């Protein structure tokens, strides 16, 4: 299988604080990897560093076999940051159109994709409203819709379901699992342990290190517990 993400001994410090301590793993096409860990564990920093938004102090991060930043592969990556980066003076529709054009979608693809992603995140009825009038949850849903645009090879989602109600969260995960089954690679950070149970592999990031990395079933078996939440608590206690 093709490695879409290859992290090797990634290191990052801010001043004297070591945030990423030799982090390494691979993500393949047709796979969902979930990253869990307490706030401040380094999950968002890891994503920013591998995407070239922060400069690594050591190690290697290859995204679609390229070191980042690399503008030539941006159209193959769907990225949703922890903070929403939206044009609030524009409508939801205009935001989607803008980012769809950046990804190189044709006019026909643009209309089809926007209609689909708006349905997935339940924003169809709100697309003509200015984003400045959106609630926090609606902005998260729009950011997620933007990440879905263009059927990217790799989807990187940093806490995508924060502020989203359980029924819509379930619908979003149905979409993620369907995309995975079509061959997309997905990296998702989450604080929702039920979501971590749905992934193919779970990585537990603590103190800048990945201290556990395996399928949910194997992690539960190795720690002798019945849920990923218990794995998290037991590993954190150790």
Automatic annotation (TrEMBL):
Ubl conjugation listed as a keyword: no
InterPro entries: AAA+_ATPase, ABC_transporter-like_ATP-bd, ABC_transporter-like_CS, P-loop_NTPase
Annotated signal sequence range: none
GO molecular function, one term: transferase activity
Residue ranges of domain ABC transporter in the record: 5-232
Keywords: ATP-binding, Nucleotide-binding, Transferase
Entries under Pfam families matching the protein: ABC_tran
Domain of life where this protein originates: Bacteria
SUPFAM superfamilies: P-loop containing nucleoside triphosphate hydrolases (SSF52540)
PANTHER family: ABC TRANSPORTER G FAMILY MEMBER 20 ISOFORM X1, ATP-BINDING CASSETTE, SUB-FAMILY H, MEMBER 1
Name the record gives this protein: Glycosyl transferase family 2
Organism: Streptococcus panodentis
Lineage, highest ranks first: Bacteria, Bacillati, Bacillota, Bacilli, Lactobacillales
